User: Fold this.
Amino acid sequence: MSGNGRQRAQHLTPEERAALGKRARAAVPRSSHAEWSPAPDRLDPVQVLEEQAASRVPELLPIRNGRMLVSPFTFYRGAAAIMAADLAPTPRSGITTQVCGDAHLSNFGLFGTPERELAFDINDFDETLPGPWEWDVKRLVASLVIAGRNNGFGEKDRGEIARAAVDRYRTAMWEYAAMGNLEVWYAKLAVQDGLPELRSVLDAKALKSAEKIVEKAKTRDSLQAFEKLTHVVDGERRIISQPPLIVPIEELMSPADAARFSEAYHELLRTYRRTLLGDRRHLLEDFRFAHIARKVVGVGSVGSRAWIILMLGRDGGDPLFLQAKEAQASVLEPYVGKSRYTNAGQRVVEGQRLMQAASDIFLGWERAEGPDGISRDFYIRQLRDWKGSWPPEGMTTGAMSVYGQICGQALARAHARSGDRIAIASYLGKSDSFARAIAVFAERYADQNERDFTALQAAADEHRIPVESGV
Assistant:
């Protein structure tokens, strides 16, 4: 397979696919993935972030910088563009999959499937694109090491956590390589199936935290958002103003402009329906547009345009919250080629559908013109649908090891759906050689991440960048 088209010229036998992996291993030894040193012409990390900021909402950039300056781990969460440039010259096996592009451990979590099961999977695809599967593994494992440092874990514990995550990726890939195509496609990580395993390896405190996260996730839906984020104004439900994080449209512009903007997004909802399945279009048509507000999301995404849209169904107590989030070119594109999709929102949606075991029933895309007259791409999904995650700051070494292994399995399943799982498994082999190499890489890259974090701190101290803390 090659480029962004994912086209196989022929259907190879399992033996031929395994041979591809072995040839790739001979050409690019697994031990070579331990390599990391900054390139002599490496870009200033602050400059990379400033270039990203050029297309974002200026008044929100101090929030992004403030969030990235909380710790080296929060910096890493917002530094996908920096790492993409750093990964470009590193060894590649030559085996391509659909990659997440930002597979750090906080971009995995719980969500509700259309069948109303609670599943665990990757949950952020803003940077997704066909590319080297190793890059996702490296970003995930480096995030575990950086989070471990943030929690005060020793080097030995961090190494064990890193190697365990990669080894679970490897063993899971072998399991998927032995499955039939449909079996792989239907595979998912159902939370109820994984709880017995958690109970067997977590201590009582960590297990209680995990169970609490699971129960809380089931309460996070449109109705919970409705009760928390809206109130009644002149007999109509409206989104509550919580500046700067949530700002209703009428507070951002004049009444006339706000009316035009609301109608433009009402039209966006009408036209984005064509990207949904027919039954889901029918369901969405039973809801009416009620209100819209700008919302600040995430760490790396702060400053990109994101809107929450309140829809109402059978009556004023039957809500649906949608989120329309701006999609730009993936940070991977300069290094692996442009997306085959002209709409960046479609790039995100198609990548998510390919990698996730089950996706939001309202996941779709559209292009819309903003109040500044510029057309931008968006993807649309539910604001909350049983979403939950385990903050790494609260993890013990045992909990982070278990969590990292679950993330490794979820990542392997996503790559197995979109790439040549037999070739990847053959490349990884049966030893821990790849795991040991990635653990070394992760420690080296964590050092680089700390140097980059220090550079951002210096830029803030020198007033080169604006910063708003605690938001």
Observations:
- The chain is about 50% helix and 15% strand.
- The chain has a mean pLDDT of 92.
- The radius of gyration is 22 Å.
